[in-house]
Amino acid sequence: MPHRNAPLTETGRLRLARCIVDDGWSLRRAAERFQVSHTTAARWASRYRQHGPAGMADRSSRPHRSPARTPQRIERRICKIRVTHRLGPARIADRLGLASSTVHRILVRYRMPPLAHLDRATATRIRRYERQRPGELVHVDIKKLGNIPDGGGWRVVGRTQGYKNKQATTDLRRSCKPVIGYGYLHTALDDHSRLAYTEILTDERKETASAFLTRARAWFASHDVTIERVLTDNGGCYKSR
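Above: the chain's sequence. Below: its structure in C-alpha cell form.
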C-alpha cells in the first residue's frame, strides 16, 4: 500500500516509466513532469525495462539478511519458557539476559498469544463470546459497595477510625453514629458492543431494579441500541413477582 504522501501510485509509476522508456523522455524532463527526484524516475524506468508493468508494484522492505537477528535456539527457548511457565516478556528477558522488547518481538513473530488471552492454570485460550448485533442480549447485574465516609477510608484516617466506620456501616446497634450504608451499582452491559450503563442507587429492591432497567432501555435507545433480551442472575430483585 503506497504511503499517504507518496507522489506516485502504481498507475503514476507506469506513466512515468513509459514516458522515459517508450516515449524517449529524458530523466530530467520526466522527473520535473511528475514532480519526483531523478533517482526515483531512474528506478521506476529500470524496473519497467526489467519486469514491465508488473514491476510497478510495491516490494517488501524486509532485508535479505539479518546478521544481528537473535539465534534460533534462543528464540525456541523463549517460546518454551512462555509455554511451560507462562511468563511475560519482561520476566523472560530477565532470565535470559535479553531486552524485553526483543523478547516481545520474538513472541509476536511466533504468534504466541498474549497472557491475557490464556487461562493461567491450563494455558488454554479463553474463548470470548459475543452476540452478533448490539441489543441482542444485555447483561444486568448489581455490585454492592460500602460507602466511603467523609474524610476518607482507613487508608487515609487509619485503621482505628476505619474500624469504627466499618462498624457504623454494618451494625447500627454498636454505634450511635448514623449508618454510612452501602451503594448499589446497577449495570446494564451490551453483549456485542460492551457498551455499559451504570447508576449508583440506594438499594437493590425489585422496584429499584425495574425502574433502572426502564431508564437503561431509554439510554440504550438514545444510542441506537434496541434491547431484545436481558440476562440476569438469580438475585431476589430479579426473581421477585
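Residues 21 and 45 are 7 Å apart (CA to CA).
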